[in-house]
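Escalation from tier 1.

The customer reports that the assembly of three entities below gives different C-alpha cells on two consecutive runs. Tier 1 could not reproduce it. I'm attaching the input and our single run for tier 2 to review.
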Amino acid sequence: MVDFLNALVALSNFVLIPAIAYGSQLALGALGVTLIYGILRFSNFAHGDTMAFGAMITVLITWWMQSVGINLGPLPTALLALPFGILGCMALVLFTDRVVYKFYREQKAKPVILVIVSMGVMFIMNGLVRFIIGPGDQKFADGERFLISAREFKQLTGLREGLAIKTTQCLTVVVAIVCVTLLFWFLNKTRTGKSMRAYSDNEDLALLSGINPERVVMYTWLIVATLATVAGVLYGLDKTFKPFIYFQLLLPIFASAIVGGLGNPLGAIAGGFVIAFSEVTVTYAWKKVLKYLLPENLEPSSLVQLLSTDYKFAVSFVILLIVLLFKPTGLFKGKSV
Amino acid sequence: MSEPFLIGDTMTGGYGKGPDILHDCTIAVNPGEIAVIVGPNGAGKSTAMKAVFGMLDVRSGSVRLDGEDITKLSPQARVVKGMGFVPQTNNIFTSMTVEENLEMGAFIRTDDFSDTLEQVYHLFPILKDKRYQAAGELSGGQRQQVAVGRALMTQPKVLMLDEPTAGVSPIVMDELFDRIIEVSRTGLPILMVEQNAKQALEIADKGYVLVQGANAYTGTGKELLADPEVRKSFLGG
Amino acid sequence: MSEMMKNTALFALVAALILITGFYQSWNSAIFILNMGLISAVMAIGVNLQWGFAGLFNVGIMGFVALGGLAVVLIAEVPTPGAWTSGGVGVIMALILGAMTIVAATVLNKMMQPGRSRTLIMLAILIGGFFLFRAVFDPAVSGIEKINPAAQGNIGGLGLPVLLAWPAGGLLAAGAAWLIGKTALGLRSDYLAIATLGIAEIIIAVMKNEDWLARGVKNVIGLPRPLPNEIDLQNDPGFVESAASLGLDPVTASTLYVKLGYSVLFTVVLLVLLWMAQMALKSPWGRMMRAIRDNEVAARAMGKDVTKRHLQIFVLGSAICGVAGAMMTTLDGQLTPGTYQPLRFTFLIWVMVIVGGSGNNFGAVLGAMLIWFLWVQVEPMGLFFMELITSGMADDSDLKKHLIDSAAHMRLLTMGVILLLVLRFSPRGLIPEK
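Tier 1 run:
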C-alpha cells in the first residue's frame, strides 16, 4: 500500500503535475491559434512570437517593479505586470492588423497568402523582441518558489517520494482556468461573443444579419493578444523566457489546435492536454514509478524511457500526423479540410 | 395603380464585370401580398432576387423600397432599411443553437426583441421545442424554419425567400408553404423564388415568369395558372 | 525586349553589389557571398518549383537541407573501422524491424474491419514493434558509439567521392518528402505547412541526438573535399609560381583558388537545375502544374490526379533542396546540426522566392542572390546605422550600448519588412511569372 502511494506520488510529481501545467500553457496558446483560424481564416505563424512579445513587455515591467520594490509577496511580481503586457500586446496586434492584415482581408486574399504574410510578421516580431530584450535567457520569476517542497511533503507524510508543487505550476492552472472560463462565458453568453461565433460559422449570413466584420476582427485580436500574453508569461515563469523557445512552441501549439479541431475552442483545450500528456509520458523515465509497483525481481534495469526528452517535438508531430491521417477535422469537429 | 411596396424596376445587370444576366427585368411586391418568381433553370430567378437585394451590379433601372430609391445601398444597409433575406443555402449558423440563431437575426436591433422571439416561436412551434439544440442537427424543413425565423427577427417590412423548398420532401414542402402563408397573413409582403412553379403560383397573389433574365409573363397566380402558354411551357401541361 | 533589359540590369546590379564587396571589403567575403548565394539559388529553385509551379507551401526546407548535409557524411566520410561489425548491422536490422512494424500496422489497418479488435491488435503490433526495435537498436547504438568516441563514435561514411553525396542528398530529402507528402497533401494548404514545419524540427532533433549517425552536436569536421586543400596548394611549387606571376601571395591565392573552384562547381549545378526547371516549366507537365495551381477544381474535373501531381512536384522540389544542403555541407567541410535554424534555412528562402518572383525560375535565382547579399550585409549596415543614430549620445550611455549590441538583430526585422513590402506592393516579385 505504501509502495502504491509512493508510486502515485512519484507519478504526480514527475508526470501529472508538469503535464497539467504544460497542457494549460499549450491550451492557452492553441486557443489563440484556433480563434484566429476561426475568424480570420488562416494559420497564424506569428503566434509564437506574439506570445514572446507580450511576455517580453511583462518581463520589462516586472523588472521595473522589482527595481522600485513593488511585489506581490509570495506570488510572482509578473502577475502585477501582466495587464501591462496584455495592453502592450494588444497595441501591437491591432497595429499589425491595421497596417498589414486589413489590406489582404479587403482583397479577399487566399488563406495561404495570409499565412505567408504572417510569416513576414513573425520575422518582424521576432526581430523586435530580440532587438529589445536580446536573444538570451531572462529571469523574472520571484516570490515563493514552492507551494509545497519535496522535503516538506516527505516530512508531512512520511513517504519516501516527495511531491513538489511549484507556485508557478499552481498559478498556471488557476490562471488558465480563469481565462478559459471567462473566454467561454464571453463566447457563449455575450452578444459580441455570439456574433464572433456566428461570424466564424457563416461569414455571409453574419454580414446579412448586420454583424460588423471589422468589430469582430478587432475583438478577436484583443482576445488573442490576451491569451497569447498570458500563455507566454505563464510559460516563461514556469520554464524560462527565451525568444527562440516561443518560436519552437509553435509546433506543439499548432498540433494541439489541429488535434482538437481547428476553429473549435473546446478542441484546442483538449488538444493542448493530449499533446502535453503524450509528450511528458513518452519522454519520462518510468523506472521511478515502476520500482514501487513491480515485485523486486521484476524491477527494471533500464530507465524505461520510451524516447529521449529531445524528441518531445517528435511526439506532438506523430500525434499530429495520426490525426491528419485518420480524422483530419480533429477530435472535436473543427472546420472542414 | 399605386407604387408597389418593393420594386426592382427595369433592372439590367450582372455579377462584377461579367456580362448582363438580367435584361430590363421588373419584379414588384404589393403590401400584404405574396409575389413569386418562377421560370426554367438558368432563367435568372435567383439573380433577379439578388439584384433586388443588392448583391449584384444593377447597371440600369432602379430598386425602390416604400418609394425610396435604394439602388446604391449595400445588402447590409438594405437589411437595416427593413428587408429580410433568406438565402437558398448556408442560411443558418449550424454550430449555434436555434435560439442563438434567432438572436443573431436580431443583431442590429437595440431594443428588447423578446416579443418578436415569442412571435417566431408562435409561428414555428417546433423551434420552441428545439430552442437549445444546435441548428445544424435539425432536419431540412426545420432548418428552413430557423432560416425564415432568423430573417423575421429584424421585424422586416418585406421578406425575401430564395427557393425555400429546395431539397425538401413534398410533405415538408406543403408544410413550409402553409407556414409562408401564415407569415403572409401577419401582413408581411413576401417575395419568393420557387422551383416548384405550380404550388408556388397557387399561393401567389402575383407571379413573374422569367426567361433568360427578362419578364416573359406577368399576372396574378390564378391568371398564370390558367394561361395555356404558361401551362404548356413551364408547368408541364 | 525591355523586359529582357530590365532583368539583365537586375542581375548586373547583384553582380555589381558582389564586386563592390570585393573591392571595398575583401575578395574572400565577396566570394563567400557568391558561393552561398549560388547554393541559396539552388534552394530557391526547389522552393519555386513547389510554390511557384504548384502552389505548395513548404516550411520544412531546413529539414531537407539538413538531410542533404547528412548525406555528405554518410557517403563521403572515411569509414569508421569496426562500426559495421559492432553495431551497424544491428542498427540496420532495427530500422528494418521498425519499418516492418509500420508496414504491418498499415496493412492490418486496410485488411481488418474498423472496430475495437482492430484497434487493440494495431496497438499491440505498434507497442510490441517499438520494444522489439529498441531491444535491437539500443545495444547496436552503444556498440557504435563506443568506438573511438573522441573522434568518431558514429557509423561513418562509405568513403566515396564527395560529389556523389550531392545526388544522394537529393535522394534522402526526396524520401522524407514522399513520407510527408503522402500524409499531408490533399488536405488544406495550412496542414502541409504545419506538417513540414514539424518534419524539419524532427530531422534536426534526430541529427542532434543520434550520435551514432553523424556524431550529433559533437559535429563531424574535416569532411573530404572535391577540391585540393589550401595547404597542399601552398606547398605545390608550380602553384606558388603561377600565383606569384599574378602578383598574389601563396596563401591568398590558394584560398581564392579553392573558393572560386567551389563557385564553378556550384554554378554548373545551378545552371543544370535552372535549365531543367525552365524545360519543365515550358513542358506540358509544367503547364498542367500551373493549370492545377490556378484552378484545382477544374483540373480535377478534367481527370487530373491532383494529389499525385502535387506529390511528384513536392518530392522533386525537396530533392533539389537536399542537393543544395549537400553542397553547403561540402563547402563548409563540416556538419554542425546545432547551426540549423528555421529562420535562416526555411523562412529566408521563402523571402528569396517571393522577392525574386514566385513562378519564375530566374526570379528565384535573382531573389536568392540579392537577399543573401542583404542578409550578410545588413548586419554591418545595421551597425553603421546604429552608430550613426547613437553618435550624439554619451559613450557610457546604456541605451547606446544596447542599441549597438542589438544591431545584429536588425537582420530579421529587415527581412520581415522586405517580405511584407514586396507582398503588398509588388506581389509578383522582381521578375514576375510570364
